[in-house]
Amino acid sequence: MSSKGRTSAEAGDGAALVPKLRFPEFQKADDWETAPGNHLFQQFNNREVPPGLPILAITQEHGAIPRHMIDYHVSVTDKSLETYKEVRPGDFIISLRSFQGGIEFSDYHGICSPAYVILRKRGRLSEEFYRQHFKSHEFIQQLTRNIEGLRDGKMISYKQFSELQLLKPTFPEQQKIAACLNSADALIIAQGRKVEALRAHKTGLMQQLFPQEGETQPRLRFPEFEGAGEWEEEHLESLAKRGSGHTPSKSKPEYYDGGVKWISLADSKRLDRGLIFETEVEISAEGITNSSAVLHKAGSVLISRDAGIGKSAVMALPMAVSQHFIVWTCDDRKLSNWFLYHLLQQSKPLFDRAATGSTIKTIGLQFFIDLRFRIPSRPEQQRIADCLNTLDDLIAAETRKLDTLKTHKKGLMQQLFPQVRPGDT
Q1: Which of the following CATH numbers is that of domain 232-375: 3.60.140.10, 3.90.220.20, 3.30.360.10, 3.30.230.10?
Q2: pLDDT tens readout for residues 290-311
Q3: Would you give the DSSP letter of residue 315?
Q4: What is the reported pTM?
Q5: Mean pLDDT on 38-44
Q6: String of b and e for 334-352 (b: at least 16 CB within 10 Å)?
């Protein structure tokens, strides 16, 4: 593949329509063409379908997939099924949320709701090329421009699709691009499975390393602790100092943006990842002085008591928290902060059961005051924590590889697909 030769250009300015990156055998090939959507794909509305075909769910994650293969629970009456349309492998489906995630592809023969628009190719086209094209950033932008004004949840009509200008390189170049991007997808899928396997392994390991409900010792112990006996039930407050937090008055600008990291509900996505380094909002020393907020030590362990119940983290540096969190500062002679973090992770079902409330569930303060756990000796705590931290580091490293592969593919697509500007014909 090479980017030498003719420079890339975007259609609509009178220049050639060619990608920034082109395979060597196509360097001297003709410029790409565009064609209206209805010239390349026809609408398909067959309702006379053979019995027994699966009902397809239309999702951004899986494309069109039989409902029984994913966690999808929507009941359909027999009368409604009479109106469902046939979908064949290679068909595209305009999703209710196409402007958010492109047009979905089906690998399956099945049926789908009449609310969807089924597209079938006309003539010699590579379905895999258009599968990638319809998910490209450039196409999503074009799709969004053409349906501007539609409210969320409304369907794109076949007429609107027909007005879109679709890229149309030669069939051999379509195949080459599709093969390249499909190879990138295969690497992403394989890496994703590796990450999921590691996460599943960790979940299973934690179930063995901590006593199950009603048991007094774990089912799996490191060799040096096999004869150490039962774990002792301890009141958590006898092992760690419990703290909480507060939200300084938002009417006082001087209480904010003062360099003190302050964990709030806006940081939910940063929890359950071990250390937390950054926060969405910072407060000031003055904000702490004039409120019930407290600056907790680095290494303190926090847990969410309402939104995102049971999510936890370890503070990488001194931080304050809002009133939605409980914080424990461990007595290091008695309790490893990292052991506590993993124990809280393992105990999420307990926190889910403790939450009450009809609209917003929360865990009352008394629950945390009374909280007790079975705890091993300090050396065994450290052994368990070190094991799980090593596994977390491996999962994080493999997740970064996955993110790198996704970023690489995104950049590759931007190079392989020229952008069609408004007004192109």
Answers
A1: 3.90.220.20
A2: 999 999 999 999 999 998 999 9
A3: E
A4: 0.84
A5: 96
A6: ebbbbbbbbbbbbbeeebe
